Amino acid sequence: MATALYHLGRAAFRWRWFFALLWVAVLGVTGFAATKAPAAADDGFTMPGIESQKAFDLMEQRFPGTAADGATARIVFVAPTGEKITATQNKAAVESLVDEAADGSQVSSVVDPFRAKAVSEDATTAYATVGFEAKADDLTDAGKDHLEDAIKKAQQAGLTVEVGGDALATPTEAGGPAEAIGIAIAAVVLLITFGSMAAAGLPLLTAILGVGISMTAITALSSAFGLTSTTGTLATMLGLACGIDYALFVVSRYREERAKGHVPREAAGLAVGTAGSSVVFAGLTVVIALAGLSVVGIPTLTKMGLAAAGGVLIAVLICLTAVPALLGFWPDAVLSRGVRKGSKRSKRKQQKRHNGGSRWAGVVVRHPVPFLLLGVVGLGAIAVPALDLQLGMPGDEAKSTSTTERRAYDALADGFGPGFNGPLTVVVDAKKTDDPNAAVATVLRDVKGTDGVVSVSVPRYNESGDTAVFTATPSTSPTDARTKDLVKTIRGERADIEAKADGASFEVTGTTALNIDIAEKVQAALVPYLIVVVGLAFVLLLLVFRSLLVPVKAAAGFLLSVLAALGSVVLVFQQGHAADLLGVEQTGPIMSMMPIFLVGIVFGLAMDYEVFLVSRIREAYVHGDGPREAVVSGFRHSARVVVAAAAIMMAVFSGFIGAGESMVKMIGFGLAIAVFFDAFVVRMMLVPAALSLLGDRGWRLPRWLDRILPDIDVEGEKLSRKVPTPEPPLADPAHQAVSLH
Hints:
alpha+beta, 11 strands, Alpha-Beta Plaits, Multidrug efflux transporter AcrB transmembrane fold, elongated, five-stranded antiparallel β-sheet, 4 domains, 26 helices, single chain
């Protein structure tokens, strides 16, 4: 592989105009296709194989045309302190808003709270529901402005008015200004690492090019594959981070080869042949981890994973072709200023046998046991809170109190009880019974008598009269563990209830039940997902390093880092420690898909660092260094770049912590802290300590397996026999730019 990539790098360097224009053309084509592509139809969130989804499907089948597909706005009214909402003046203000809202464009229905008995027992709070014909994204500004004007009039009358639902939901941004700050930090890290504006800008330029292509491609294909606006969030996050890191490794290796005296074209070929080989396999591990998200069986998660995998593949291809092509335009610009000027100090610095990375590795290999114990015990201690992990899906209760949705949620909880925001929907199928009304009444009576249910609604029948739907309001909030127990209790008594209901069947659904089902399905899928991802990646690492123990060590280190990251997420977002520092206003259950996200994404990124770092160690080992000397040599060449790559990853992911959306904030924090643990604890401490303890045994492979495995030559051993002897470094910068071809 190294030889093939070497020739590809030389070709891209020589035919730089062709490759540069090719990628610009690809961006133009995907961008044009994105502008012409029809908008994707919003099929909603589906979760095959769970009870909540089966109930939703039954409702769509038995109640055709009555599903509330359009946007809704739940307007909550709170009377002034000491007054009641039923007072003449307050009631008039509410009814005026209801009448005015009904005249708005795209409004399909408005429910008067006084007619619908949507008034709290203490008569201080009421709510009206406004239904729209169109989805939230399709509402016109005129329609929303009309409703907002009506709300302002009610507020001017002295009422506290807040709005829940999706019609007027506060728009959230992926990262906001903090994301731009993250990119700026990445630029600073690159500048410090390379000491050259061009070398710092090139990885950013190619990464942005890759993200632009992947995002326009996702938009162009959104209608054909049912992709939504959230599908590309993960592709943007990983495409940017991986794109910068991959280009960083190639540019760093190019500078190293130039320092050895290779002419620019040879240096580009060698950089792509060696560092590019590591990029290919690192990218493949990320792709495997992302594509493996399909194992979970959640269509939305599968689409996000496949879209992000495509973005990473584009980043790899750009790294192998566009980066050497751009190096061909400015072969000396990416070198440090001292090297370009031919200073003796820069030469001595590059010829030094030791730097910060090698000195650190020397300390670790001399004392491997203490460092190994410190890393394992430390990460293990941080991972302990993960044992208390509670999964759920954050709703309006997790939003900032500065949003009207959160204030509406709190007002409803205060006026109608904590369970009002998460009612359970019970769907009764009485099609096979002789008396559907009696069967539904039996189910309703038994559900109402269950401990933890404070009230049930009047059942609503379909046109055929053989199916009914009613809601059961719990006494506890949607995120309370007792609500989860209540759902399990009702479902656990199903057999007895159905027997008394003359064979009628029922399903429990609703947002609260759906979140419970999602959490259970994700937990059940986590182990199979780990087996698939770790198994495939083990095979890849076996091919790369031709060792049994190195892949095992890599997998063990990954598990430590991801569990410690999950423990940190629980500490902050569930238990509330240091939550104020991150702007987390409401703690609660961890997003159900967070463990899957962490396992999938962090595994891919962890293998990035493993491949980049250990491949340089193995390269030194196969060229004759002893096990400990190889560790020190590998760190001398790669530690600084790995640290810079990790800092960039952390900067990019940390940008998403500034998002207003709790879910995005949680993902950004989890990924950033996981990269920190994996890069600075696992790869910088545990890897050198473990390899020094293993010695030669770490690089052994059974002979029968060695004969079976293909020799892919990631270290570029074959290249050393083909590449001409480098020219001695010249002091005259004019001579350093010769022989570009």
